[in-house]
Design goal:
Distance between the termini: 46 Å
DNA-binding region: 42-61
Number of strands: 0
Domain HTH tetR-type: 19-79
Keywords: DNA-binding
Largest sheet: none
Structural class: mainly alpha
Helix content: over 70%
Protein name: TetR/AcrR family transcriptional regulator
Order of helices and strands: HHHHHHHHHHH
Organism: Pediococcus inopinatus
Shape: elongated
Oligomer: single chain
C-alpha cells in the first residue's frame, strides 16, 4: 500500500494490491472498532465479520493493535496531505486569511466526513493509546511548517497573521476547532442545526484568532 494519497479510505483500500483476506480484515476492523471501540471488539468478531479465521488476522497483523494502526495510519497521514501537490498549490492561491481558512475548513471537513468511521476510532483512542496519540502529534508537528510555509507565511498573507503565532500554533488552532465540532456532531448531534452556518462560525473564530485585527 504505497500510494497514500486519497479522499475516501474505503475506495482507496479497494484499489490496493493486497490479498483479499487482508482487505476484508481491514474493513471488518474499521467497522467494528468504530461501532464498539478497540477494547470492545475481539479478534473473533473481526474474523466472523471478515469471513475468515483468526489465524488469517494474525497472518497479516501480529497483534490487534497492529491492525488498529494499519487502519488509522493512512487516515491520519491524509488529514493534512503535505505531499499532495494539488492541496499545497490550492493553499498558495489565496490572498486573504479569511478565504484561505474557508477553503481549508471546507476541504478538510469533507475529507473527515467521508472517513468518519475511521476518525471515530482515532478520537476514541487518542486519550488512551499512546501509539495513536504519537502518530497524530507527529502529523501535526511535521505538517505545520510545510502548510504554513505554503500558505500563511507567504506574502500577502504573512502580513495578515499575528506575528507572535508560529506555524504549529496556527495548525493547532484550526484543527482544534474542527475536531471539537466533529465530536459534537458524533456525540451531541441535536446541537448541530445548520452545517453551513456552523462551519461559517468556525471559520470566523479561527480567522479572528490568527489574524491581525
Amino acid at each position: 500500500m504505497d500510494n497514500n494519497i486519497f479522499l475516501n479510505y474505503r475506495e482507496w483500500l479497494a484499489e490496493q494490491k493486497i490479498p483479499k483476506g487482508k482487505r476484508s480484515v481491514l474493513l471488518a476492523g474499521l467497522d467494528l472498532f468504530s461501532q464498539y471501540g478497540f477494547n470492545g471488539t475481539s479478534t473473533a468478531q473481526i474474523a466472523t465479520k471478515a469471513g475468515t479465521s483468526q489465524a488469517t488476522i494474525f497472518k497479516y497483523f501480529k497483534t490487534k493493535e497492529d491492525l488498529l494502526l494499519a487502519i488509522i495510519q493512512p487516515i491520519i497521514k491524509n488529514l493534512l496531505p503535505i505531499y499532495q501537490k494539488d492541496f499545497l498549490n490550492s493553499l498558495n492561491k489565496f490572498t486573504t486569511v479569511k478565504d484561505l481558512i474557508h477553503f481549508f475548513i471546507r476541504d478538510r471537513y469533507h475529507f473527515v466526513s467521508v472517513n468518519m468511521d475511521a476518525f471515530i476510532i482515532i478520537f476514541s483512542e487518542f486519550l488512551t493509546n499512546k501509539k495513536v496519540r504519537d502518530l497524530f502529534m507527529q502529523l501535526i508537528t511535521a505538517s505545520a511548517p510545510k502548510i504554513s510555509g505554503a500558505a500563511f507565511m507567504q506574502n500577502p498573507l504573512k502580513k495578515q497573521i499575528r506575528p507572535e503565532l508560529d506555524s504549529l500554533t496556527i495548525i493547532r488552532t484550526i484543527l482544534g476547532q474542527m475536531i471539537i465540532y466533529l465530536l459534537q456532531q458524533k456525540y451531541a448531534p441535536k446541537i448541530t442545526t445548520d452545517l453551513n452556518h456552523d462551519l461559517n462560525l468556525i471559520e470566523e473564530q479561527i480567522t479572528r484568532a490568527i489574524s491581525i485585527n
